[in-house]
Amino acid sequence: MLALRPNCECCDRDLPPDSRDAYICSFECTFCGDCRDGVLKGHCPNCGGELVRRPVRPAAKLVNNPASMQRVLKADGCPPAF
């Protein structure tokens, strides 16, 4: 099950579970659309994989399967895409 992390790893922007502006790689690294399209150029800075839109979990399912509250943030921001 996806963790649905609460923020962008680059800029720390909040990305609630119903956000349509959250993007993930196959390892669930999470980024906002601005970082994805800008500095990252569509690729995860951690693994190099493609960043795709994160699915939205229906609100009724969040009751028993809540989103993660653990924030992940790169201390130095995100380097330009490789």
Q: What is the residue-averaged pLDDT?
A: 94
Which sheet architecture does the biggest sheet show? 3 strands, antiparallel
Q: What's the Cα radius of gyration? A: 12 Å
CATH class: Alpha Beta
For the biggest β-sheet, the strand order reads 2-1-3
Q: Helix content range of the residues, please? A: 10-25%
Identify the CATH architecture. 2-Layer Sandwich
Distance between the termini: 29 Å
Q: Strand percentage, roughly?
A: 5-15%
Tally of individual domains: 1
Q: Helical region count?
A: 2
So what's the overall shape? elongated
Total strand segments:
3
Q: What's the helix-strand series? A: EEHEH
CATH fold-type name = Herpes Virus-1
Structural class: little secondary structure
Spans of at least 5 consecutive residues with low confidence: none
InterPro entries: DUF1272
Protein name: Urease-associated protein
Keywords: Plasmid
Walk me through what this model shows.
This protein is largely without helices or strands and 82 residues long. Helix content is 11%, strand content 10%. It has helices at 33-37, 59-62; strands at 22-24, 30-32, 52-53. Strands 2-1-3 form a three-stranded antiparallel sheet. It starts with 21 loop residues before the first strand and ends in a 20-residue tail after the last helix. The model has no long low-confidence stretch (mean pLDDT 94).
